[in-house]
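Lab notebook, bench 4. The sequencing result for the construct came back, and we need a structural model before the next group meeting so we can plan mutations. Quick request posted to the team channel:

Model the 3D structure of this chain.
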Amino acid sequence: MYCTLECIASSFMVLIFLGGSDNVKLDVSTTSDGTNYLIKYGYLVPQDPKTGALRSEESVKQAIREFQQLAGLPVTGDLDPNTKEMMSLPRCGVPDNIGIGRKSKRKKRYALQGSKWAKTDLTYKIAEFSQDLQKGQTELEVDRALKVWSEVTPLRFTRKQIGPVDIEVKFVRRSHGDGNPFDGRGRTLAHAFFPQYGGDAHFDEEEPWTIAVSTGVNLFQVAAHEFGHSLGLAHSDVSTALMAPFYRGFQRSFTLDADDVGAIQELYGPPNNVKPGIRAEPPKPVPTSGDPVISIPAICRDPQFDSITQNADGFTYVFKGDYYYRLNGYGIDTGFPRRITMDWRGVESPIDAALHWDNGYTFLFKGENYWKFYNFRLIYARKISEGFRGVPNNIEAAFVWGGNGKTYFIKGNEYWRYSDNKVDSRYPKPMSVWRGIPNGIDSAFKWKNGRTYFFNGRQYYRFHDSNFRVDDGYPRDVGNWWLGCPSQSQIEHFDSLEKEHGAGIFASHGNIQNEDDVAGEQFLSVGAADTSSADDISLQRTIIARSLLTLVLTVLVNS
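Done. Here's the predicted structure in token form:
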């Protein structure tokens, strides 16, 4: 079901993008002239079932012309292959007749629904979170989606934790109390209300929400579109606009179209001189001693870990002992480490290995058992002998090799290749096949750049899939390049300064280098806007490095 008749008739509920990883395309071939689609999305008026009236050919052609105009197609009035293909795309479920058509006398390509907020300072809260995304990740993406609009208007958004708000965001399933139930994975992804009806936005919890990756459903882009409706925008007939009715999938470099900017500024005007953005309620002050505090994570002193993997949310995760860490573009993310048992339900720590498949599933292995997750949602737990036939227990590493897309398992000095639900014949084979990779691998994984990395103690190796050997310039130090740690010599120097001048004399910002410094690596924080240029990142690191140096020198001079 795309949208109920009640939803279409009321026209105040905005139903967004049909599709995702399991897209269900509308079959326009059920009628040769596409009338089912044209009726569904408001281009033709449904016929009275009590009469036997026939439509004129010209009325259908005129409806097709209006659809073609909105979709940015050549306006012919004919149901040609391009028009049929456009009709089959994932799209918003709300009719397109708000602000367009023969009666609208529309002069601009964008459309305004007819209501707006009477104020520019709006509050919002996420009342119910997704189980598949961490709370902080969801807050960040919702903040980013709202900031899309605050950057081009005087609008200001303040996130609240409790109490009444202007816009309430929820992740819900099926029937959820507003008379417009969701229909499960792969169909209607979310819906929102226009300002005069409250502006709330609801997201289908059954969808595979992801962040900054091409798989699944991109939360940021869907949320930005939804909040456009929450602010009073209807659909645009500019195909490149965010408010176009057709879902374009994940876009790594996202910007508002000039049409979107013109629409929202017609409602609220251009931005004031005050810097736009998102405001959170100020946290309660935390008492401090007034002295800068040294903060070198314990893992930096022993950067060997049990496993490293990606997840469906796009982040990279490191497992060590009873804890796990999330990595961003500069090292360990704030709020980490966390206990594995807190978020990875049923898993017994420490783990032996972790594996991520491109379909979004992540597997954690320990002993004879493994756990299958989608993000942090446990799918099931099984014996390795049941789910990975022929793979030994107590494995030490597992990865998908970018060279052929097959899964490999490492134990001791041997490896097994797994495909078609079993270990391939003539395996295991010796690890010496992988030229330049030492024995005793702790972990391995295919990163988001498609390259394969092997970790051995405090060092790691990047493998060249075409030349089938380790890349030049490797091995490298894990702590420096992946965890954002100071070098071992820096840590020793910091320790000596601390002993000489007293504990807690300065804050450590970590080592200012990582895999992004290598051409083509793009080690950026997936939870933040992926729009920084290489020069911007280099400048940020230079600033941090200079700040750290200045702080250390100040301490020494004043001691």
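The CA atoms of residues 225 and 243 lie 6 Å apart.
Will bring this to the meeting.
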